[in-house]
Predict the structure of Profilin.
Amino acid sequence: MSWQAFVDTSLVGTGHITKGAIISIAGDSAWASSPELTIQPAEMKVIADIVAGNQAAIDKAYAEGIHVAGVRYVLTKTADDIYARAGRDGVCITPSKQAIVVGIHNEAVQAGNATSVVAALADHLKKTGY
């Protein structure tokens, strides 16, 4: 399956994610994304720093929020998964070994369902070496 197929089928195709992306664990490239989701290089780098456990990046994100495709989200969780909200919408971020899965959901979706979908794809990628 191609990276784009993972985004289209395993994320957006579930109905729990409205837009999704897979970026490199280093935060230096997007492997695939929904057509209407463009995560900027600086945003990818911040996401990668948070995933890597960079405490300064985590503290800054809690204080100032995290930006994904130009939208500011208020960071609420950075444990195993990263979760942030913008109003009633949310973003779920989960790393695998070589990639970071990003899923954005709207207010019609429960955050737990969206997080489960993102985590399931990240787990699948881990099991296949990514």
